[in-house]
Specification:
- The protein has 821 residues and is α+β, with helices and mostly antiparallel strands.
- Helices cover 23% and strands 30% of the residues.
- The chain contains 13 helices and 40 strands.
- It has a seven-stranded mixed sheet, sandwiched between helices. Strands 13, 14, 16, 19, 21 and 22 form a six-stranded antiparallel sheet that branches.
- Helix 8 (241-254) links the parallel strand 11 and strand 12.
- Helix 12 packs antiparallel against helix 13.
- It starts with 11 loop residues before the first strand and ends in an 8-residue tail after the last helix.
């Protein structure tokens, strides 16, 4: 490198192969570039690439550098000489000589290229051209021809159809939605057929097949076979039917119908017939659009009729039946020792899995241990599904709603039949000096469920209501969040690439730079003391807690860079730095941040407010702290991403129920305690004419026992012969009551389970894998006499018949273990 100082600007990329310190080359060694975009950026920067290897096979480094037009200088090891021709598209240096001789030879080549830029450009151009022609067909043709000589094929009476080939990079243009027009290259002035609204494609026939390409592009790049012909072809233009025969033959082999053929020797001769076909195609499209519009109108009418019918049904049902009172599904009391999760540094972020499913949830409450906050304080709570991460409830409480004690959160209506795990995501943002803490429950939580202090969960209460039986307008409700998916915690969410296209550049020297097919990036140039401003007018931030901008210093001393990130209302007019303000709602700024001298870039995080809108304006302000004009900085705004900061649910957290040690015995309640139930309803009373079979179909709502709760259950108490049984069904119109279905029988109505007294006495509990299932069966049997007495009153008027049903319920109830003393 010393021998080329003043002639060559060096970059060394990679790492030592052996566990030894890297050599002192006088240039900082950059880490390996592995991503395709990073490799392309390196090769685009370079004019020449050195590969002084002692051992190689076919190095991809040479091929990648040639593809980007670099002059490769390499030792002639391995197969390097097969992919690089000395003096034509690169340079070879003999490897079987001393290291000093190899270095001297490479330095001499570099010095020559530095003095002859025209030779350097020619070498790079030939290397890139060689790689463009090195397709599969070209590299394999000699080998395939040799195979054909060894294994000659029997001649066929009919030649096989030719293959349609296309450039892989042009596929997106083939499916742009515009009508396609195909023309053979032999049609005179075929490029004149590239009319507005038409996508013109030319066809060239050669030994490989029919190469489909756009005007002005290289047909040699068409190497990808099309498995099916393109759709939406308006016509094929060819000098004659004989000239179009290969394409028509190929088309017939892979599609039922070929496009219309226009026989014309020139573009001008094809125009009249093309106009006729275009008008006919337009008429067909208009007719199809009319049919679609009619179908859409009918669908809207049916949807409106269904909406009106559902509204009438809901109104009549609510008038006929008063809304049932909410059933308490879960209640954990605040710790008497004062355990609480307190805000630190002005923020409180918690995440907790709940021991119930979402189905039926209508309200919840949290307990504030302490609340002394300023008017700017906010608390946001979101209820979401643990598996799909879909939001089912979202509230933002202002400071005046935050006071010590229980705080309720109502949903507009109970959640429907959603069997996913209920989870909470809580975030509070406070001003300096504010105090806020949420009470934790008295008992320690099972492993993996504590949200603070490692072993306790939030003190909370949950209520359920049958779906469709309660409607209200909740306070502090965020309608915009409903049904949105929550972003994964701590995983950067990269914002759309279209943001860079919408960037406004009010002041400073900022340009858009694109490398290859990548989206344009913003690159700012600053001299000493200069500033610049970049505005993204509408950045989507719903569901995020933090924005993070990443800056990369491409030229100059990174220690001279200072940057600040601002949030302003979406669509804000910002023409200069003086227009930025913290007085507008939701406005924030990161403060001036400075990169370290060895960092080479800067990361700017900025917390979003809890009441975040759908989108905000993001403004980046850069300034060069240097004092001299020659202290130049080139800074790239490399990325803008979002994060959700909610505390993650611990690994192994339970789904829908709390984790417990398995047991094979039926649960017991202390003497004097009983399961709680919200409502009991008779679904059906059925008897056969000879009374050989009869049953009561009973629904139970809001059942709670131990630490478990069930919004809705259903069972049949049946008598077939002399023995009473409980019948459960696994059907779509029955609630899914068992976590693990224990039944082993099925009939024409689906799987079923019959439970008799002898099953309970004979160890039925051992068949139930889930403790929740054991508690459910226990709770139903404990309540069975009461539930049957309530349901039977609705349909049975004969005292003897009524008493017989109670006797059946008591016989099953008696099979339970005795209560604990």
């Amino acid at each position: 490198m010393a021998g080329t100082r003043g002639l060559v600007e060096w970059r060394v990329v990679g790492r030592p192969v052996l566990d030894a310190p890297p050599p002192d080359l006088g240039v900082a060694i950059e880490p390996p570039a592995l991503a395709p975009a990073a490799l392309d950026a390196l090769y685009a920067w370079a004019d020449a690439v050195l590969l002084p290897s002692r051992f190689e096979g076919v190095p991809l480094t040479v091929l990648e550098a040639q593809r980007m037009g670099c002059a490769v200088i390499a030792t002639d090891v391995g197969a390097v000489a097969e992919i690089l021709e000395d003096g034509v598209d690169g340079f070879l240096v003999r490897h079987d000589q001393p290291e000093s001789a190899i270095i001297a030879a490479m330095v001499a080549i570099l010095a020559r290229l530095a003095a002859r830029p025209e030779e350097l450009a020619a070498i790079g151009a030939r290397a890139a051209a060689r790689l463009r022609q090195a397709g599969w067909d070209a590299t394999m043709r000699e080998f395939l021809d040799h195979l054909d000589r060894l294994l000659p094929l029997e001649p066929c009476s009919e030649s096989p159809p030719m293959t349609l080939l296309i450039d892989p990079a042009a596929l997106r243009h083939l499916h742009s939605g515009q009508p396609l027009l195909l023309a053979l290259e032999r049609v005179a002035e075929a490029e004149a057929l590239a009319l507005p609204g038409l996508s013109l494609w030319l066809l060239r026939e050669d030994a490989a097949g029919l190469r489909l390409h756009r005007p002005g592009t290289d047909p040699v790049l068409a190497v990808l076979p099309l498995p099916a012909p393109p759709a939406g072809v308006l016509a094929l233009v060819a000098p004659s039917r004989e000239a179009a025969a290969p394409l028509l033959h190929a088309w017939a082999a892979i599609a039922p119908e070929a496009p219309p053929l226009i026989e014309a020797a020139s573009a001008a001769a094809a125009l009249p017939e093309l106009a006729r076909l275009a008008v006919a195609g337009l008429a067909r499209a208009q007719a199809q659009a009319g049919e679609v519009q009619q179908a859409l109108v009918l669908a809207r009418q049916e949807g409106e009729e269904a909406r009106i019918a559902m509204l009438a049904l809901t109104q009549s049902a609510n008038q006929a039946l008063p809304p049932p009172p909410p059933s308490l599904a879960l209640a954990t009391e605040p710790s008497s020792a004062g355990h609480a999760a307190a805000a630190e540094g002005g923020r409180l972020i918690l995440g907790q899995v709940l021991p119930v499913a979402l189905e039926g949830l209508a309200s919840l409450a949290l307990h504030l241990r302490a609340a002394s906050v300023s008017p700017a304080a906010r608390l946001r709570l979101r209820l979401y599904a643990g598996e799909s991460r879909r939001i089912f409830g979202s509230w933002t409480l202002p400071a005046e709603a935050l006071s010590p004690g229980w705080i309720g959160f109502d949903l507009p209506r109970p959640i429907g039949p959603v069997r996913e795990t209920a989870c909470l995501d809580l975030q509070a943002e406070l001003a300096e000096g504010d105090r806020l803490s949420l009470s934790l429950e008295e008992a320690e939580a099972p492993p993996g469920q504590g949200v603070a202090e490692g072993a306790r969960a939030l003190a909370l209460r949950l209520w359920t209501v049958p779906f469709g039986r309660r409607f209200l307008l909740p306070a502090h409700w965020n309608w915009e969040d409903l049904d949105l998916p929550l972003a994964p915690e701590g995983v950067p969410v990269h914002l759309p690439a279209q943001l860079w296209d919408s960037a406004v550049l009010p002041s400073g020297r900022v340009e858009r730079v694109a490398l290859g097919a990548e989206a344009p990036r913003l690159l700012a140039s600053l001299s000493g003391g200069e500033r610049c401003l970049v505005l993204l007018p509408a950045v989507p931030v719903r569901g995020l807690d933090l924005l993070q901008a990443e800056l990369a210093v491409r030229l100059g001393d990174a220690a001279l860079l200072e940057a600040a990130l601002w949030l302003q209302p979406a669509g804000a007019a910002v023409a200069a730095e003086a227009d930025l303000s913290l007085l507008a709602p939701g406005s924030r700024w990161s403060g001036w941040r400075r990169a370290g001298p060895a960092e080479g870039g800067l990361r700017l995080p900025l917390a979003l407010p809890p009441e975040v809108p759908d989108s905000v304006a993001v403004v980046l302000v850069l300034r060069d702290c240097g004092t001299a004009p020659e202290e130049l900085l080139r800074v790239e705004w490399a990325d803008l991403s979002g994060l959700r900061l909610a505390a993650p649910i611990p690994a192994g957290a339970p789904v829908a129920v709390r984790t417990r040690q398995p047991t094979r015995a039926m649960p017991r309640l202390p003497r004097g305690q009983a399961p709680q139930v919200g409502a009991v309803r008779l679904q059906e009373h059925y008897e056969t004419p000879d009374r050989g079979y009869r049953h009561l179909d009973i629904g139970v709502e809001g059942l709670r026992a131990g630490e478990f709760a069930w919004p809705r259950l259903r069972f049949k108490l049946a008598l077939h012969g002399e023995e009473p049984v409980l019948e459960f069904r696994a059907r779509p119109d029955w609630p899914a009551m068992f976590e693990s279905w224990p039944g082993r029988a099925a009939d024409e109505y689906g799987p079923y389970l019959l439970l008799a007294a002898r099953d309970l006495e004979g160890g039925f509990a051992a068949r139930l894998r889930s403790e929740r299932d054991r508690w459910m069966v226990f709770a139903l049997l404990r309540l069975l006499p009461t539930a049957v007495a309530t349901a039977a009153r609705e349909a049975i008027s004969e005292p003897e018949d009524y008493e017989s049903w109670l006797d059946l319920a008591r016989r099953l109830h008696a099979a339970l273990p005795q209560e604990e003393g």
